[in-house]
């Protein structure tokens, strides 16, 4: 049984955007040498989430629009109010959007590759950018 882990960084350039991480993570899984097992990817941030979905450009834009619409930034959220919070980013909306997503994704590995369906891709959602994000990949299984 092998257990290997590493961290890597992703820099974002917009307040809200979706990135396709599939190829980057697939390459890392192959390099870590696990042939059969699982891979878990974790965002080390409260305003950066992960999911599995299709990565067609128009759909990613629809996802971004959906995430913008589910939280009204004009609402006087307490987290954005200096009388109630020490946060200077005014990012309550990003935290609330993260509630409908997940900070991690676990996928199977078979033949040294992530197991994904025909249209499935591994996506990262930046909810409070632009920032540099740290992700941790852990693979476990047999070589």
Describe the structure in your own words.
The protein is of the alpha+beta class and 143 residues long. Helices cover 22% and strands 38% of the residues. Strand 5 and strand 6 form a beta hairpin. It has a single domain, classed as YjbQ-like (Jelly Rolls, Sandwich), CATH 2.60.120.460. The protein is elongated, with a radius of gyration of 17 Å. The chain has a 5-stranded antiparallel beta sheet, with helices on one face. It has a 3-stranded antiparallel beta sheet with strand order 2-7-4, with helices on both faces.
Question: What's the short version?
Answer:
The protein contains three helices and eight strands.
Describe the structure using short key phrases.
elongated; about 140 residues; three-stranded antiparallel beta sheet; about 40% strand; five-stranded antiparallel beta sheet; 3 helices; Jelly Rolls; single chain
Describe the secondary-structure layout:
Elements lengths: L1 E10 L5 E4 L1 H11 L3 E8 L4 E6 L3 H13 L22 H7 L5 E7 L2 E2 L6 E6 L5 E11 L1
Provide the β-strand percentage band.
35-45%
Average pLDDT across residues?
97
Q: How many helix segments? A: 3
SS class: alpha+beta
Rg from C-alpha positions? 17 Å
- By oligomeric state, this entry counts as single chain
Q: What do we call the CATH homologous superfamily?
A: YjbQ-like
Mass-distribution shape: elongated
């Amino acid at each position: 049984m092998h257990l290997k882990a590493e961290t890597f960084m992703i820099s974002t350039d917009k307040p809200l955007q979706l990135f396709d991480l599939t190829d980057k993570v697939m390459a890392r899984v192959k390099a870590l040498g696990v042939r059969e097992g699982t891979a878990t990817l974790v965002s080390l941030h409260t305003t950066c989430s992960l999911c599995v979905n299709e990565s067609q450009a128009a759909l990613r834009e629809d996802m971004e629009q959906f995430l913008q619409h589910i939280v009204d930034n004009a609402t006087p959220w307490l987290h954005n109010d200096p009388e109630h919070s020490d946060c200077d980013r005014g990012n309550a909306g990003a935290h609330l959007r993260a509630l409908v997503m997940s900070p991690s994704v676990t996928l199977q590995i078979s033949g040294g590759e992530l197991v994904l369906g025909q249209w499935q891709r591994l996506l990262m959602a930046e909810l409070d950018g632009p920032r540099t994000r740290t992700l941790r990949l852990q693979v476990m299984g047999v070589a």
